[in-house]
């Protein structure tokens, strides 16, 4: 594994930098406003038109893996209702729609034959978006690996990276004339470490060494796909990472080391590989406890660091961590008991809570943390356009007769984070767009349908869609290209 002398500097910016200073106003001309979804969470139609099974089909149909045993078989039925959904997007004034391509819908075996009926769906979706003046922003992988590839070993096997690159070119060939902006992977940290280390996500394996291999092969697949897409004429190519500010719970050496470790494996491992062409030395050393790194071959890192046109940032919260003796709890990303640590080599790190408001997911709300994160990216990494590709919150939405869903908490959450973006832009960080998560209420992975992130309410019994207050508020933000003077309209 190639290393470097990267450190955990800039873990947290101090209050003197202007946390919560209230910068607001309009956004730069050309700032892109959108919403995001993912295939398995909204499409449904699990057996329609030749789609094959993914690891999430298998996982969700396995007893005890998801809350109440719920699956994405139907989800929000977007596969059949996409025209209605695009019309809603147009009504809200969305300028771009970030969606993911279902790999098993396009290539059921993960290699070989192409399912043209699956590709036809994405052709129709892209055409419908363009007819309404909305830019299609496809993400090629949002966690739904074709089950036959998992049966052959999954992401811990190097061959999967090559299969992904081939699949990326198949999709580009089909809709490349309709798409200007491509993302290869969504949140490879989750795919690798929640899928193969903690087992809280599909495929549900608890094999730390395999998770480390998976992380590298995901990035290798990204690099191979990025290079192939560019050679095929793709105009704009990027990757989407879920990033978190990380802060020690106390000034102790143990807590500082815990922060270094989590920042290293969650943030710097991916950022340094993609943007600097190496893995951080300290993270490599941390991972020596579970991996000999023999899977990293000469030439891999230059491929992984193929130049990009953008980086997508998914931001929901920040972390405070403690050493093994700290008064805190292990990390968990699932409502179900039994997950191992998603941090190989740093299993003893504990996660602390603060006196911050939390969402229905139990995630602390830290809007100024986004300003800090974006500032760090601007300072420490090569200049590259940044897009907030996911930001949103689940709350206990209540349906009020005659009023629908009056989700003022979500409005406040989004506004707080948009002000954080505006503050970063004012400081010179090249933030070029914002995609709210999510357009629709959907299947929330291991949480099933118990958590709602959408700005549009979905009645799962009837599939009726109703924009929430947050959708109408967001439409106003898009219309004025800026925030209102107060906390709402």
Describe the protein.
The chain is an alpha/beta fold and 489 residues long. The protein has a single domain (15-480), classed as TIM Barrel (Alpha-Beta Barrel). The chain is built from 15 helices and 15 strands. An eight-stranded parallel β-barrel has the order 1-2-3-4-5-7-10-13, surrounded by five helices. A three-stranded mixed beta sheet has the order 6-8-9, covered by helices on one side. A hairpin with a 3-residue loop joins strand 11 and strand 12. Helix 3 (78-92) runs parallel beside helix 5 (116-131). The protein is globular and about 55 Å long. Residues 4-24 have low confidence and may be disordered.
**Helix vs. strand class:** alpha/beta
Counting H and I runs of at least 4 residues, what is the number of helices?
15
The CATH topology is given as TIM Barrel
Kindly state the mean pLDDT as a whole number? Answer: 93
Q: Please, what is the CATH homologous superfamily?
A: Glycosidases
The Rg value, from CA coordinates, equals 21 Å
Helix content percent band: 25-40%
Distance between the termini: 52 Å
What are the low-pLDDT stretches, counting only 5+ consecutive residues below 50? 4-24
What profile does the largest beta sheet have? Answer: 8 strands, parallel, barrel
Form type: globular
Number of strands: 15
Q: Which architecture does the CATH hierarchy give at level 2?
A: Alpha-Beta Barrel
Report strand order across the widest sheet: 1-2-3-4-5-7-10-13
């Amino acid at each position: 594994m190639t290393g470097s002398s990267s450190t955990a500097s800039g873990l947290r910016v101090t209050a003197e930098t202007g946390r919560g200073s209230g910068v607001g106003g309009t956004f730069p001309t050309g700032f892109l406003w959108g919403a995001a979804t993912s295939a398995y969470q909204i499409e449904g139609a699990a057996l329609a038109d030749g789609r094959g099974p993914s690891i999430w089909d298998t996982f969700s149909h396995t007893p005890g893996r998801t809350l109440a045993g719920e699956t994405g078989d139907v989800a929000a039925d977007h596969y059949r209702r996409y025209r209605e959904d695009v019309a809603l997007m147009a009504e809200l004034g969305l300028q771009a729609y970030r969606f993911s391509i279902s790999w098993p819908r396009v290539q059921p075996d993960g290699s070989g034959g192409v399912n043209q009926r699956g590709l036809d769906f994405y052709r129709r979706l892209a055409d419908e978006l363009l007819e309404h003046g909305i830019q299609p922003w496809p993400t090629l992988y949002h966690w739904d690996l074709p089950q036959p590839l998992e049966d052959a070993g999954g992401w811990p096997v190097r061959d999967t990276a090559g299969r992904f690159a081939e699949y990326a070119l198949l999709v580009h060939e089909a809709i490349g004339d309709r798409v200007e902006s491509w993302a290869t992977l969504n949140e490879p940290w989750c795919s690798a470490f929640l899928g193969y280390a903690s087992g809280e996500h599909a495929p549900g394996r608890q094999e730390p060494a395999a998770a480390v291999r998976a992380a590298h092969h995901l990035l290798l697949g990204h690099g191979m796909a990025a290079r192939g897409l560019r050679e095929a004429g793709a105009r704009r190519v990027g990757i989407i990472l879920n990033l978190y500010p990380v802060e020690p719970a106390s000034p102790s050496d143990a807590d500082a080391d815990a922060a270094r470790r989590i920042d290293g494996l969650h943030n710097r491992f991916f950022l340094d590989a993609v943007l600097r062409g190496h893995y951080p030395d300290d993270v490599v050393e941390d991972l020596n406890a579970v991996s000999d790194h023999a899977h990293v071959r000469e030439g891999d890192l230059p491929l992984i660091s193929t130049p990009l046109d953008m980086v997508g940032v998914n931001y929901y919260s920040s972390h405070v961590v403690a050493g093994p003796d700290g008064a805190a709890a292990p990390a968990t990303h699932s409502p179900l008991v039994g997950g191992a640590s998603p941090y190989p080599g740093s299993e003893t790190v504990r996660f602390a809570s603060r006196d911050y408001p939390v969402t229905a997911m139990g995630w602390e709300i830290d809007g100024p943390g986004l300003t800090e994160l974006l500032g760090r990216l601007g300072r420490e990494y090569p200049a590259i356009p940044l897009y907030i590709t996911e930001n949103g919150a689940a709350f206990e939405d209540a349906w009020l007769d005659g009023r629908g869903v009056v989700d003022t908490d979500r409005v406040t959450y989004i506004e707080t984070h948009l002000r954080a973006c505006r503050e970063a832009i004012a400081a010179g960080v090249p933030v070029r767009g914002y995609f709210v998560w999510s357009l629709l209420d959907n299947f929330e992975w291991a949480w099933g349908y118990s958590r709602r992130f959408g700005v549009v309410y979905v009645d799962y019994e009837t599939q009726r869609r109703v924009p929430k207050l947050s959708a109408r508020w967001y439409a106003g933000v898009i219309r004025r290209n800026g925030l209102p003077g107060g906390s709402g309209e």
